[in-house]
Amino acid sequence: MVAGHGLDHTKNAVAAASRAGVQRIVNLSSIGAGFSPTLIMGREFAEREAIIQESWIAWTFLRPSNFMSNALWWLPSLKAEGVVRDPVGPGRCACIDTDDIAAVAAVALTQEGHTGQVYTLTGNELLTVRQQVEILAGVLGRTIKYIEITPDEAAQAAIARGRDKASVEVIRDLNELLRADRVAIITDDVKLVTGSPPASFESWCRRNAAAFEF
Q1: Which residue has the higher pLDDT, 37 or 204?
Q2: What is the pLDDT of residue 168?
Q3: Average pLDDT, stretch 11-38?
Q4: Per-residue pLDDT tens for 100-135?
Q5: Per-residue b/e over 131-158, b at no fewer than 16 CB within 10 Å?
Q6: 45-71 in b/e burial notation, b at 16+ Cβ within 10 A?
Q7: What is the number of other CB atoms lying within 10 angstroms of the CB of residue 3?
Q8: Domains within the chain, CATH numbers bracketed
Q9: For 92-113, what is the HEC assignment?
Q10: 84-93, 158-167, 176-185: least confident range
Q11: Of the candidates 34, 35, 13, 42, which has an alpha carbon nearest to the alpha carbon of residue 25?
Q12: DSSP 129-196
């Protein structure tokens, strides 16, 4: 799963898989690949899905929502200022634990009945970033200051840190989509495939609390 960087790496991987006689591909895509109109990042993932479909290798597509582990991106500002800056404001998301994505992938790779399926993988609760920050603060037992910014302000900050303009535009597009509440989606695909419900954000925070101890 890579945002940006073109399609050559996907073409090369699929060609190598075909030459090696690989029978099944489980592709980690993105929830954005199924949106219409498509956002920049979603279009790139959809194009990669198309390459796999055209290969004639049996496939399953996993389209996860935002990762719970993206909360680790808050670490620099938390360490420096005790602050989380958020460009998506009122937008809600049912973030997914990467352990749950892995569990779905393992089943799809090792069991029959998943060929040609597209699984949209989400957690089981819609949360704003402010609510995520409150949950994390409660688990850690300390105050975290939440500051809402705009997608444009986030983009300008990324450019100031040295990010290239093309990748910044991809991120800005995603943040605007999130801010518009267009990713407020919950599915039962994790439980459908694995038999177990997805983890909560609070449980992820408890398992990863040590990463926020500084």
Answers
A1: 204
A2: 85
A3: 92
A4: 999 999 999 999 999 999 999 999 999 999 999 999
A5: ebbebbbebeeeebebebeebeebbeeb
A6: bbebbeebeebebebbbbbbbbbbeeb
A7: 15
A8: 8-212 (3.40.50.720)
A9: CECCECHHHHHHHHHHHHHCCC
A10: 158-167
A11: 13
A12: HHHHHHHHHHHHTS--EEEE--HHHHHHHHHHTT--HHHHHHHHHHHHHHHTTTT-----HHHHHHSS
> In sequence order, what are the beta bridge partners of 24?
58
The DSSP bridge partners found for residue 127 are: 93
Segment (H or E) for 14: helix 8-20
Q: In whole angstroms, what is the distance from residue 54 CA to residue 31 CA? A: 20
Whole-model pTM: value is 0.93
**In the structure encoding, which two tokens stand for residue 104, read together?**
């779905």
| Number of neighbouring beta carbons within 10 Å of residue 105 | 19
Per DSSP, the three-state class of 87 is coil
In the structure encoding, which two tokens stand for residue 19, read together? 């030459």
Please tell me the distance from the alpha carbon of residue 170 to that of residue 40, in angstroms, as a whole number.
6
CA distance 167 to 5: 9
Nearest-CA neighbor of 104 among 61, 52, 71? Answer: 61
Residue 126 tokens read as: 């819609």
- Is the pLDDT at 164 greater than 80? The verdict is yes
